[in-house]
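This section describes the prediction task in plain terms. A model, or a person checking by hand, is given the sequence of a single protein chain and must write out its three-dimensional structure as a string of tokens. No templates, partner chains or ligands are provided. The sample shown here is typical of the held-out split.
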Amino acid sequence: MGDMKLVLRKWLLALGGTALLWGVGEARAYGWELIDGEGFGLELGGYAQSAGGLVRPGVDWPDESIPEYGGLHGQVFRLQWRAHLGESLMVELDQRLLAQMTSGAALQSGEGYGLGASVTPERSVDWEWRWVDEEGVGLSHDVERLILRYFASWGEVVVGRQAITWGSSALFPVVDVWAQFSPLELDQTEKPGVDAVRALLYPGGGIELDVVVADRGGWDDIAYGLRASRSFGAADIVVGGGRFWRRGALLLGAAYDFSSWKGRADVYVPLAEFESEAVGPRATLGVDILRGRWLFSVEQHFNGGGASDARGYQMPARQDALSRGETYYSGRHYTGGVLSVEGQGRFRGTVSAQVNWSDGSVLVGPSVYYALSDASDLTVGFFEGIGDRAVLVPQPELRSEFGAYGGFYYAQFRGFF
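The expected answer:
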């Protein structure tokens, strides 16, 4: 059963993310001004988050003594220090305290749900201290941001552990090559940090250049990339490339605002010869429609390294791509949509759905968000995977992607300071 638990954990890290991504509110910045001197300033902000719920793994357990449901609870406390050194320099330090508790069936299916579920980018320097690390109980402290920013008239240079986002896709990101949220991550206020040197350059004419060199755990794994973007009226064009996950790749993107709706596309193309069928181009086409309080987004995704049917999901190369966060999907063709409406007062409702056409499984995820105040919010929701459940006997078999995810029924609170 140990091998199957590893497979299930990788799959849980790979869940398609609209149920949670669209359920949480936007990140907000607050803080106390501790020092306001001439040429120097120090601010402290952050947030506290508590989340928990029930987990129903999508597995047919051979042992009837294993409970059908499990419990999950976690807390995050994050301190965000910001120091200003004159007008050109800024230092950022984020400390995160993470506590987790799991029970019942959640112990059997791995720890891919809830707070801290995202794949952490490989790093040569480990600044995480695990104070408690036992089955079902975890308590850790880590440094998720340590950044020196330099601002100039020509752009900005950022050195250290930082959040980097490339691409415009919301449901199926394909060019966000530095770090991605696990779709089962409830702490989506801040992305996992990547250790990198980044330069943002603005040469003029509507052109923006983004250059990144990132540590991936060793000299052989160093990643680097260049992304150039330019606006042409209502159109945006992006061209880039570099070395990611030990292979060269070309990155392309385009978007056009038609006033009443917006179309967009992201494409990832490996340049090296495909060493296996698990390596291939990825592309996402998307449309966003905004009508007053209503927002509707739909995306069509092609995963060239995905399997054409469920029999290929457990290929080692595909599992490796999931475990390192390169992609979060095992199939080849997907369609996803999100409908969000701003309700009266402080409410927002969201319904999402994704279809894996390779095996016919479906993921649905409604959620309700309520802003308790300008500095706190509450979200309740669930996702439900519809499809064939995984089996363990006579041998471990993943019969559908979303069916193997089971269900997750959660509530979370966030408070900012």
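For orientation: The first strand starts at residue 32 and ends at 37.
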